[in-house]
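User: I've been trying to design a sequence by hand for this structure and keep getting stuck. Would you show me what you'd pick, starting by listing the structure so we're on the same page?

Assistant: Good idea, let's start from the same input. This is the structure you sent:
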């Protein structure tokens, strides 16, 4: 057990060392002066089009990792559950904002919720398990929000497998939320160079086809043949027009002449939709690449480096523990043999 624990600490320490090197050896660039290539950016999180709703506390965020463990696991029943998701967001510093596409990123997120409770105590343990969709609009319609507050929802939360089994359970949720300070090391590139913007979010549960090799092969073949439509207007028609789905399109849709014409959204709504959903081809964004991994860490650079140093030191102690435990084990076997 000492050897295993030491090796686990050593692995975490080496991960901390890699983060220390990447964050510590890259100087911070302001967003306004960003150039193509590997960069370090520090600022605060801002939502883009959508926000996630975390699993255990229903908190709006751009990243969460929720884990549920059971005392049954000690008895060999692997009944735990883990869900991890992230969604595209913006990071803002004093000079501007930058869009981040987090698929393939390594996250260093703080624990925002941790508790152990019996099933009978769940209602009092700070849990607010999500029901409904995993996402919500970044900008809430005030009238709809007021109506939702005045409506009693009789539904019970939909529990993913692993959340509804009896016994004492531990709950932990790591999150990065709007307004949080973050440091990002990754590759800045023009939006037009991003291979698949629609597939640039991270999800462990919501897209069952995301890792399907047959789907991936079909997409690769379509790209190679030039038959993959990359223009939303060509692919979706009227559905690509912001506001069309709620009867307030920002531009006139193409509809049958006999159909009722939809009123256009006002100028302010149209401008907001343009800022939210349109990204110019030459706009720089942050994303992962094969050459430059993407690291998204909570806190300012000094805090990130400090945490990485602590993990590295703990990893060294883990190595000492593993070596010492191995020596003690070897000596015990030698004693038994003699």
């Amino acid at each position: 057990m000492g050897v295993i624990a030491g090796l686990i600490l050593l692995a975490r320490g080496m991960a901390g060392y890699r983060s220390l090197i990447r964050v510590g050896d890259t100087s911070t660039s302001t967003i306004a002066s960003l150039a193509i290539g590997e960069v370090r950016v520090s600022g605060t999180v801002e939502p883009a089009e959508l926000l996630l709703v975390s699993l255990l506390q229903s908190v709006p965020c751009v990243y969460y990792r929720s884990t549920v463990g059971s005392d049954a696991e000690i008895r060999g029943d692997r009944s735990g559950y883990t869900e991890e998701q992230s969604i595209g967001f913006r990071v803002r510093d004093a000079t501007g904002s930058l869009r981040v596409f987090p698929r393939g990123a390594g996250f260093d997120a703080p624990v925002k919720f941790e508790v152990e409770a019996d099933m009978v105590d769940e209602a009092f343990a700070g849990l607010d398990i999500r029901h409904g969709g995993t996402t919500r609009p970044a900008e809430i319609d005030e009238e709809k929000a007021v109506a939702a507050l005045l409506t009693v929802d009789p539904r019970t939360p939909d529990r993913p497998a692993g959340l509804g089994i009896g016994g004492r359970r531990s709950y932990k949720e790591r999150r990065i939320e709007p307004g949080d300070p973050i440091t990002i090391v990754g590759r800045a590139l023009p939006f037009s160079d991003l291979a698949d913007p629609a597939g640039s979010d991270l999800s462990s549960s919501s897209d069952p086809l995301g890792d399907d090799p047959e789907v991936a092969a079909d997409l690769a073949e379509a790209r190679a043949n030039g038959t993959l439509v990359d223009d939303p207007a060509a692919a979706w028609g009227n559905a690509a027009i912001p506001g069309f789905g709620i009867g307030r399109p920002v531009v006139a849709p193409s509809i049958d002449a006999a159909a009722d014409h939809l009123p256009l959204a006002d100028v302010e709504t149209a401008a907001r939709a343009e800022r939210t959903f349109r990204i110019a081809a030459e706009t720089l964004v942050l994303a992962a690449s094969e050459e430059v991994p993407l690291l998204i860490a909570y806190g300012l650079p000094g805090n990130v480096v400090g945490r990485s140093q602590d993990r590295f030191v703990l990893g060294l102690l883990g190595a000492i523990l593993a070596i010492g435990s191995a020596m003690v084990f070897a000596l015990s076997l030698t004693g038994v043999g003699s």
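That's my pick for every position. To get oriented when you compare it with your attempt: The two ends are 24 Å apart (CA to CA). DSSP finds six helices and 15 strands in the chain.
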